[in-house]
Design a protein that fits this description.
homotetramer, mainly alpha, Copper-sensing transcriptional repressor CsoR (chains A, B, C, D), DNA binding (chains A, B, C, D), Metal_Tscrpt_repr (chains A, B, C, D), Metal_Tscrpt_repr_sf (chains A, B, C, D)
């Protein structure tokens, strides 16, 4: 597994742990704005994981595809994904 | 616990389950774009949870504060949070 | 016109000026990443304007509605808007 | 100028026109939520323009760089940009 994937897994695991904490915060009746701020932090980790996955995708799969002269399809796939990312 | 908090917990638990699935997808070497799309889906659930928390915060804490004539501080708190949400 | 609305108009006018500059950058064949970074900057100003509009909406219309015991409808309206904001 | 750049300019011009309309809406004292919804629409057009710029950047500059075996720097540049996009 490459370095980016390892880092992505770390970010995902941390995010998962934060979500468990957030559920407990709600159950304990903690202040809403504190809960919301934690949700924002967990979201930021998911974004980070996604950027790492995308980075190694570009450097491996997309590079390979360009060298084999069929990169355009890969680019379409990425743009479609990004349109959804920047809209979540 | 009010209805919005219950729904928020459900969304958070689903998101947590998805993240566990995503970690496994990466470990299994699944295609990057499929991994990314799942991360986007998990993020969307966190956003949903956050909107539910915010909704009941407005309808309870903020309403209460306005009736006691000290709502402006609550509004500042929300705007600060939203500036961070819409920027994650 | 209140202070927030004035600041929002200033942000919108600056954003408009930036967009004019971006169109010229593309016509002049400037480097794509520089163009993209300018688009991100113009977007950030729109977000800022939106937060200012929302702030004074909460402090005036929504406050008024809570005092007249019909705030829930206003809150639904805001949550619907925010679901769209945080998804653009 | 390629097709994506032309479409990006169209989106930017439409967005600029919308912003002019939004400024007028605020000056005319129009309802805040209507103003906010228009700001969201103008933002969506900026995002669209950015995706078009990025698409042709990948299909031209980045492809070229990979063929010349120096694509990694381009990828870093894109990831840095995207981290900012998905955070505005």
């Amino acid at each position: 597994m490459n370095k980016e994937k390892e880092k992505a897994i770390t970010a995902l695991k941390t995010s998962k742990g934060q979500i468990e904490g957030i559920i407990k915060m709600i159950e304990d009746g903690r202040y809403c704005i504190d809960v919301s701020n934690q949700i924002v932090a967990a979201s930021a980790l998911l974004k980070k994981a996604n950027m790492l996955i995308l980075k190694q995708h570009l450097n491996h799969c997309v590079k390979e595809a360009f060298l084999n002269n069929n990169g355009e399809e890969k680019v379409d796939e990425i743009i479609e994904l990004l349109s959804r990312i920047s809209s979540k």
